[in-house]
Design goal:
Blueprint: H1 17-37, H2 44-55, H3 60-65, H4 75-80, E1 85-92, E2 103-112, E3 117-123, E4 128-132, E5 139-143, H5 149-152, H6 171-184, E6 190-195, H7 196-205, E7 209-213, E8 217-219, E9 246-248, E10 251-255, H8 257-265, H9 277-295, H10 304-312, E11 315-317, H11 321-332, E12 339-343, E13 350-353, E14 368-371, H12 377-383, H13 390-394, E15 399-403, H14 411-421, E16 430-431, E17 439-442, H15 449-459, E18 462-465, E19 488-492, H16 494-500
Parallel strand pairs: 1-6, 3-12, 15-16, 15-19, 17-18
Antiparallel strand pairs: 1-2, 2-3, 4-5, 6-11, 7-10, 8-9, 13-14, 17-19
Amino acid sequence: MPPPPPPRARRSLYQQPPRRRRRLPSVIGAILLIAVLVIGAVAAYRVVGFLHSVANLNNPVDLIKQQVEPPAGSIAYKIKHGQRINILALGYGGRENEAPWLTDSIMAISIDPTSKRIVETSIPRDLYVRIDAWQDGRVYTEKINAAFEVPNEPGLFGKGAMKPAYQGKDGAGHLVEATVGGITGMTFDKYVAVDFKAFRQVVDALGGVQVHMDTALDDCHYPNYTNGYVNHGVPVGYRCPPGAGIHFKAGDYVVNGEQALQLARSRDATQVEQQSDFARAKRQQMIISAIKKKALSAGAITRAPQLMDALQADFKTDMDITDIKALYDFGAKLPDTAIQHFAVTDQDLAQGYPPYTAGSCGPRAAYVLCPVDKTYRMWQSIFSRVLVPPPTLNEKADVQLVNASNSLGDLQSRTTIVLRQVGFQLSDGVRHTPMTTSVIYDYSGGKYPQTASWLQDFFGAQVVPATEPTPGVRGAFVPAPGEKTEGLVVVMGSDFARRWIGQGQ
């Protein structure tokens, strides 16, 4: 079998019958009310065509049949029975872009119907991964943003048939599900993908969305729609000349569709605080939250014709109308505080190249992100626990992480970032002299039992009752400078460090 071609340069950078009579109007009201609102201007077949295209509704009668009890395993069923749901959300360039199928945004959304919470996890597009899509056993290593491209433009990746699961209308979405699922351990129920044009048009159809910028953003290397980057000859990190690039001020204001896309895509900002993968993921999640809020507002339904036009041609999903209705009903009731945000970046679970060092997972000629743990076992351990039980978080325990390993100098900061994102309250971590075995010191007198139990399970460390050390006692444990002697202190030894980098169980 000939070896696969070398990695390609990125072409674009950038119920009961009596109840049915009561439920049916609410179903039609939530999903088909647009037919009533626009009946004078849009023919009925326009609405049915929209539902067939976007919500995979072949026969409107199917909608009525599924109201008594949704099919087992469906999103509606899982919401009703309190089972976790994972949805993959993708943003791709579309027909306007030189590389139309590369995904600039990849987000794994986990929903817990019982605690009424959602966790949105941003997966960096530059993560270098294995893409296993071919029947002949070939496996490519590529940036993860190419997974959606493979079934849509298979000729770019050599000859050979796709596996059956990755063929057809939803094949590309299912390949990204498999690729993201392989590194996170998540099993996805459904996917949704929207291109740049639809994204812009949805925001414009809603009359713009409200954003909050902590700091200004200036980027004179923003990608255009034809030639890759808009490069005005200014090195990255330098101030943009007048009239060049994109510019956003700090504060609260309304942005249109093109501006919302710019905020979501920008990655070469002049401001250091806006350059990181974490900042980019935060902006993307902010825009999505703003769209959700505006779409659920009282006046949004009057814009139904514009929203249909925006979505019908440039929106892909394997959800059906029952799934969409269930998610709408669930999400409409949630406050913004119910949504947590998690971003995989080079500050926590990944590491960036350049700077290039030995062991880089990708080609030296391209910027890629590589997992700190190449086995992804640590990733899977974290994402299986990303929905921390509310009673545990409600303890509001004072936690600090101490790096007592000798193999990963920033272990305390990486792990602190992860645990803060899943909801824990942590003080900044510190370094300590090396220890072989991790231990959790409980200075609280057992005040935080559920937090201590969660940490014990995650770190695989024993919880030891502790009191503030007595100065001058020979052989007593001596805290490191900055190490706390209150709350819960997790001293991460070499055993946990090996797990973090994929060298231990």
